[in-house]
Design goal:
By secondary structure, this protein is an all-alpha fold.
Length: 200
């Protein structure tokens, strides 16, 4: 049971890290704020998945003299840390999106690169959702449920990026920045949902 949880979380971590690299590189080359924002979201989600992986390892340790009720509370602490990090990054991107909306539109915005990166991320999100769903049905566990929640939020945030691409392709140059602004607010919501009481 424990081995399957850790194996599932490791596969989930590998998938989201690959999405982070693809989105960051393609976001920089395409000058897409929405894609770079989503890549940072993927990086933070990777960090949270690492915390969940460590939590899964520590949570099974038996009670000792210093932890008479066991080590299960580390999962709640991981959720709190992840929530604070996401909230701060979200605030930064909201401000950056507002500044960019007030600036002249970029002269070049290669939407094909952004679309390729976004589609890759959508595929990794679907992979994670299916993988985590199957493991939850077999072995359950708070850590797997928390990572499933993150995967679902990743999927939603990437759809926002795609919406921004569509708007840009139709001539609405602020579409990318509006998508980044909306994504920043979505990340604020996610950070609040990562409160320990909501991760159970």
């Amino acid at each position: 049971m424990f081995a399957q949880r850790t194996r599932t979380l490791k596969l989930s971590l590998f998938a989201i890290l690959s999405a982070f690299v693809v989105e960051l590189v393609f976001g920089i080359f395409s000058n897409s704020l929405a894609l770079i924002t989503d890549s940072v979201h993927a990086l933070l989600d990777s960090i949270v998945t690492v915390v969940l992986l460590l939590a899964a390892r520590f949570a099974i340790k038996p009670p000792d003299a210093e932890h008479t009720y066991g080590h299960g509370k580390i999962e709640s602490l991981g959720g709190l840390i992840g929530g604070i990090a996401i909230f701060l990054i979200a605030c930064f991107f909201i401000v950056e999106a507002i500044i960019r909306i007030q600036s002249p539109p970029p002269s070049v915005f290669p939407t094909t690169l952004v679309l390729i990166a976004a589609l890759y991320t959508i595929c990794t999100d679907i992979f994670r959702i299916v993988l985590l769903n199957r493991s939850i049905k077999k072995v359950g566990g708070v850590t797997l449920k928390a990572d499933l929640y993150h995967a679902a939020m990743d999927f939603g945030s990437t759809l926002v990026v795609v919406a921004g691409i569509v708007l840009v392709s139709f001539g609405f140059h602020d579409g990318d920045f509006v998508a980044a602004l909306f994504l920043g607010m979505l990340l604020v919501f996610l950070s609040l949902k990562l409160h320990p009481q909501n991760c159970a």
